[in-house]
Amino acid sequence: MDRIYEEAANWLVREPDDAMDWPGFTHWLEADPRHRAAYDELALIDAELDDHSTRLAAARPEPLPVAANDSQPLRWGRWAGMGGGAIAACLALVFALQPVGRDVPIQDYRSAIGKNSQIALGDGSKIVLAPASHLTVQGDQLALEGTGYFDIPHKPGRTLIIRAGEFQISDVGTQFSVGNEADGVSVDVAEGSLSVSSERLAKPIALAAGHGLRADRSSKTIRMTSVDPQQVASWRRGQLQFDQTPLALVARDISRYSGEKVMVDPAIANQPFSGVIAIDEGASPARALAQILSVETRPVDGGIRLEPRGR
Amino acid sequence: MSLESHQGLVGLLEERRAELRRFLVARTGSEADADDLLSELWIKVNTGQPGPIASPTAYLFRMANNLVLDRIREARRRERRESEWTADRHGLHSTLMEVSDSSPNAEQLMVESGEARRLADAIAQLPAGAQRVLRRHKLDGLSHGEVAAELGISKSAVEKHMAVAMNHLRRLLGD
Fold first, then answer.
1. Which of A128, A240, B101, B162 could crosslink A149 through cysteines, CB 3.0-4.6 Å?
2. Residue B81, C-beta contacts closer than 8 angstroms, at least 6 positions apart
3. From CA A147, how far away is CA A185, in angstroms rounded?
């Protein structure tokens, strides 16, 4: 079978070449139906590479990112709640759970677009998943793609570990939110304290209530933030906070959290927006946004499109 | 015949129809699919306006080959969606929507970024030579000839590296 794959790879690799021997390829396919299956398999991987080439080229391995440690003082800054970017795209990364024993069952929770999901675990932990998020639970090991709010009761001798991208959050009983999104990983503590570790950090960081951490994926920086504990995961109450967020990303968040399909004309896609958008039953957050920004709205197939004035 | 006009391509398709059909039958394993795709190809050739084409015959075969791949991918996507809906208890199906035509919905993005991450991990495990060639060719978009010139190796060495890389990826992603 390995020989078949080798031959299939040779045909695949030469396919874009004008000198490709198409009759020869046809004969090879005709010789054995397994040839076709092997070629399909490789061609699908090849197509996936093409689909993701930009992202993969950008994700080129680089020297290890700067880790936050004692010689590099952390920047403490006021953080304006749930940054639009943080919850913007749902490009959550998939990561593997450390095996903790084969007999511990894995549970999968997914939230749909437009609504939060409430999860109650057997140990009394309560979790709210933001729309379009995915949580895997295997014993005390959790893994998050997207955004979630965790309310974990204290239990002697138990430590819950939540993986979010390259970060692990260890918790013995507290309330906090975690985001594992396109632009990076964020943690905000509303009550109690927890510990964040990562190979990007020289040593684990302890975060107490009112503090948070932002790990930006593109700039590879890690920043400590302070946060109003009352405002942690304000999306649970239907509040989306944005800080200088491009309109296209604001629209994507509104679509994700409200379920209202919002599109943005390319002419205003990069216009920044700062403020709070309320996601309420029955109201159109996109129209509210349009009013604030003085842009036009136009109904389109199943949703709303924001356009510059005077089209 | 180095440059081919639109009319020329249509004529060439007729001329090569039997060969193309034989290829499509071999490629799909089905006469019905092959005939279907052949009509699709005919429509594409008659409505498309390609720029100058260096090798029109190779161009037609590549088009046909791409149509087959598109079909396979569409079938895979459908299977995946269906299995996801079955697995999902939250009624994702009814709430799923496109955020916009050009920006895929969040659910789709999540699937895609999972794919990208798996690919990135697999690429990082490739042998150094194959990895370098694959990155320059597939990710940075250099042609085989350009990669060969840049790395000071022959074009057939580039092809060998690429074939090795693709098979490694298959093994890594198949696990």
1. A128
2. none
3. 9
Q: Do A112 and B167 touch (CB under 8 A)?
A: no
- Tell which B residues from 3 to 32 touch A, by Cβ distance under 8 Å: 19, 22-23, 26-29
The domains located in chain B, with CATH, are 6-85 (1.10.1740), 105-174 (1.10.10.10)
Helix (H, G, I), strand (E, B) or coil at B174: helix
> Which range in A129-143, A215-229, B153-167 is most confidently predicted, on average pLDDT?
B153-167
Give the model's pLDDT for residue A63. Answer: 33
What mean pLDDT do residues A91-110 have?
52
Please judge whether B110 and A15 are an interchain contact, meaning their C-beta atoms are less than 8 angstroms apart: no
With contacts defined as CB-CB under 8 Å, which chain A residues touch B159?
10, 13-14
Instruction: List, for residues B29-77, the tens digit of each pLDDT value.
Output: 999 999 999 988 988 888 776 667 888 999 999 999 999 999 999 888 8
Cα A220–Cα A84–Cα A266 angle in degrees, nearest 5: 100
Please tell me whether the interface predicted TM-score (ipTM) of this complex is above 0.90.
Answer: no
Alpha-carbon distance A25 to A15, whole Å? 9
- pLDDT value at position B111? 58
Distance, in Å, from the CA atom of A278 to the CA atom of A285, rounded to the nearest integer, reads 7
Kindly report the number of other CB atoms within 10 A of residue A2's CB atom.
9
Count how many residues are written for chain A. Answer: 311
Which chain A residues touch B114 with a CB distance below 8 Å? 92-94
Chain A contact for B131 (CB, 8 A cutoff): no
Query: Secondary structure of chain B: what % helix, strand, coil (to 5)?
Result: 75, 0, 25
* pLDDT at A22 > cutoff 90: yes
For A56, the token pair is: 């993969």
**Predicted confidence (pLDDT) per residue in B76-128, tens digit:** 888 877 766 555 544 433 333 333 333 445 555 555 667 788 898 899 999 99
> What would the two tokens of residue A167 be?
């970060």
**d(CA B47, nearest CA chain A) in Å:** 22
State the Cα–Cα distance between residues A241 and A239, nearest whole angstrom: 6
| Local structure of residue B136 (DSSP, 8 states) | I
Q: Tell me the C-alpha distance between A132 and B113, whole Å.
A: 13
Question: Can you spell out the DSSP letters for B5-41?
Answer: -HHHHHHHHHHTHHHHHHHHHHHHS-HHHHHHHHHHH
Longest CA span, chain A: 71
